[in-house]
Amino acid sequence: MYPNIEPVIDEIIPKKATLMLVKTKERISLYTIDGNVLFFQHFDEPLVPTLRILHQYPDILPKVQVDRGAIKFVLSGANIMCPGLTSPGARLPETDLPEGSIVAVMAEGKTHALAIGITKMSTDHMKSINKGNGVDLLHFLGDPLWKIVVD
């Protein structure tokens, strides 16, 4: 699912490390090593790396970028509308990403991702219609998953 993670997977999950599965009441599975959450999964949806992993390995996910005006809304957990991804300062990848792609959400003028989301339509479709919900957030800076400590 994530071809760019293959070269670094042995760094993320060392061969002799003990990977633990932690299940929550909300049907969210957390995959941890030494108390650090590496991946999460809601019910039977795709396995998703956390922002902490994405910050260490920024090229493992394709990127979309929001403009400065959208940053405060993304940090409050709002999904991203197409105009927030197509306006000046925003950026979508050159190659089309299909609906359902897991993406890193970058912010104009910032180095690290501020969220991870899933596309609700292809990026070419986002560019052409420029309305509606483009990316649903799965994880963002400051959310409970960002703050979690597993003992």
TrEMBL record:
Record's keyword annotation contains Cytoplasm: yes
Gene Ontology terms, MF aspect: RNA binding
GO biological process: formation of translation preinitiation complex
Location of the protein in the cell: Cytoplasm
InterPro entries: MCT-1/Tma20, Pre-PUA, PUA, PUA-like_sf, Uncharacterised_CHP00451
Major subcellular site: cytoplasm
Any single Gene Ontology cellular-component annotation: cytoplasm
One Pfam family it belongs to: PUA
Keyword annotations of the record: Cytoplasm
Domain PUA, residue spans: 62-142
SMART domains found in the cross-reference section: PUA
Family per similarity comment: Belongs to the TMA20 family.
Function text: Involved in translation.
PANTHER family: MALIGNANT T-CELL-AMPLIFIED SEQUENCE 1, MCT-1 PROTEIN
This protein's name: Translation machinery-associated protein 20
Species of origin: Furculomyces boomerangus
High-level lineage: Eukaryota, Fungi, Fungi incertae sedis, Zoopagomycota, Kickxellomycotina
